[in-house]
UniProtKB/TrEMBL annotation:
This is Uncharacterized protein. It comes from the Bacteria. It comes from Puia dinghuensis.
């Protein structure tokens, strides 16, 4: 499934990818930091939405954090 990814906290459109591809993209960009959906001790970096409405008409379906 593809999600529309928006950077946090700016809420700026980033791209449209699957969760795995988005995690890999951020893993490379952040030099090997762990990227996952676990908020414990992480920093929110992107939110994934099911549609590309802006302003958003629903809450994010996926949150990705860097550790």
């Amino acid at each position: 499934m593809l999600y529309y990814w928006y950077l946090e906290p700016e809420d700026v459109y980033n791209d449209e990818l699957s969760i795995g591809d988005e995690c890999f993209e951020w893993w490379v960009a952040l030099g090997g930091m762990i990227i996952d959906q676990n908020p414990m001790n992480g920093t929110l970096i992107v939110c994934g939405y099911l549609n590309d409405n802006y302003p958003h008409s629903a809450y994010p379906a996926v949150y990705l954090y860097a550790h």
